[in-house]
User: What shape does this take?
Amino acid sequence: MQSDLSNVNISVVMATYNGEHFLRKQLDSILSQTISPKEIIIVDDCSIDSTVAIVQEYCNQYPTIRLISNEKNLGYIGNFEKGMRLTKGDFIALSDQDDIWLPNKLEKLYQGLGAHLLIYSDSELIDESDNPLHKKMSDIKNQIAYDNCLMYTIGAWAPGHAFLFKKELLERCIPFPTIVTHDFWIGFVATCYSTIQYLPEPLVQYRQHNFNAIGADTHAKKENQTKPSKETLQELSRNRMRLLFETCPSDLVEQKQVLKTISESYQSNSLKNNFTRMFIFLKYRHLILAYKKKSEMMKILFCIKMFFKIDY
Assistant: This one.
């Protein structure tokens, strides 16, 4: 069995930015995997701490690690995209700079992937000192298999740090839009052509601290974060819904029509658009709200709220 696993060609992509505090533990956990990645591509986004020096130290010791230093800041979406474009493996796993992977993460994900384009696992939350917070990602929102692109209409709960996906999926994702996160985009595109498998086992210790780019607490305010205006949020929602509609393949006839109807209803708050939006959400609520931990009554109330708003 081990000889078979040794031939598995997995590329790990890590995006770094001022990650000196936790970087060594994450790199050590990746290097300790029961399936050794064939390459670890690290793209640094103009760090001003010792991140680059730490990575270079590992590069000198481990030939599978490759460092690319950006000349200008790309942001985390552009950083991950750049790294993924450089991969040579048949499978890609994304890595944050501050987590800790369980030793069998890649092995279990690979064994569970099968014919799916993408698989992800549950994660356990830890604090800055590696202490468990006694909470999993699945405790916050539903972590599930995604078998319909409508399940991504307003959000999803499949995080990139727990991904393993086939390289062929990346070709369908390029270029990455900047109005949604890279892992949301990869997941949505995956559901347009396949299904997403879910492994209900924590394989990542997902670190929570004040400097997370994206943390498990979606409502927490980040330092120096300015809340966008209502108009900005509405325009973002319109653009995002238009993107989903335009990306959905034409052979997914029902899903394409649903996304088109929702996208059109987002263009204004006319009485007709408001009623259309509310009814379409009500009709497809079990798909659209599948990832939310809401009772049936709360799902219905959420859909009714869509009569009045499009930013969520």
